[in-house]
Amino acid sequence: MGALPLNINIQEPRWDQSTFLGRARHFFTVTDPRNLLLSGEQLEASKNIVQNYRAGVVTPGLTEDQLWTAKYVYDSAFHPDTGEKLVLIGRMSAQVPMNMTITGCMLTFYRKTPTVVFWQWVNQSFNAVVNYSNRSGDAPITVRQLGTAYVSATTGAVATALGLKSLTKHLPSLVSRFVPFAAVAAANCINIPLMRQRELQVGIPVTDEAGQRLGHSVTAAKQGIFQVGLVGFCLVFATPLCCALFPQRSSIHVTRLEPKLRAQIHEQNPNIDVVYYNKGL
């Protein structure tokens, strides 16, 4: 068997991201909870395979399926822009088991105020870790910004939950069970923009089709955060299918960018009509 060719594009997902089915297959792989069981050595081994292949070095005996497996293991544990290793519960593979557990507890313990407050706090703590871990771009975020986003989202969730709990206490218990979901939706409207406010201030990287950076765009950041917010609302129902609503590597027309960046891009390459960015997860 010959050596694996170097023309396999592992910079992109294995399946066509212009179709919903392709994105769904991609995110079913990214959110596979079994990735949480991999050891540090296995993660580092996958990282080495991917980085070596990108550098033009093929691990002896490596097959294409093994390469793609390593790529998805690497993607599941390391940030695509910064390359940093994500904390365990911040990885997308933790979404299904963590959300199942937290949602089950919020639906079970919804009658008493202390338990409502506690599980909304747990949920927002988890969301804060996920939103920070999967932010787009490599712009740093300060401890103060993190704290503001966390406290604001938690306060918003608890206030919404307690307010709706009070309003629905005379209604059938079935209605009361939906209170946690409304609280989570309200909190996500606060949590995501605040946790990613740095992106709204300095923008996120935009690239040409080949992945070459052209600059930073606040407009692309706004579009990406809006898409993530919509996905966050839908995540109540299904993680992989909702993640697939928009491509992770999204596109935006140059004409919609800020005038300064638009002029900068046209100066570099006047033929570019569309640029690309990582919207985050």
UniProtKB/TrEMBL annotation:
Please report a single Pfam family linked to this protein.
SFXNs
Classification via InterPro entries: Mtc
**Membrane topology per the record?**
Multi-pass membrane protein
Q: Which GO terms describe its molecular function?
A: monoatomic ion transmembrane transporter activity
Which parts of the chain span the membrane according to its record? 224-246
**GO CC terms for this protein?**
mitochondrial inner membrane
GO terms under biological process: one-carbon metabolic process; serine import into mitochondrion
Q: Which reaction does it catalyse?
A: L-serine(in) = L-serine(out)
The alphabetical list of record keywords is: Amino-acid transport, Membrane, Mitochondrion, One-carbon metabolism, Transmembrane, Transmembrane helix, Transport
For the keyword Glycosyltransferase, the answer is no
Please state where this protein is localized. Mitochondrion membrane
Task: Tell me where on the tree of life, at the top rank, the source sits.
Answer: Eukaryota
Function description:
Mitochondrial serine transporter that mediates transport of serine into mitochondria, an important step of the one-carbon metabolism pathway. Mitochondrial serine is converted to glycine and formate, which then exits to the cytosol where it is used to generate the charged folates that serve as one-carbon donors.
Quote the NCBIfam families the UniProt record gives.
Answer: mtc
Which family does the record claim for this protein?
Belongs to the sideroflexin family.
What is the designated name of this protein?
Answer: Sideroflexin-3
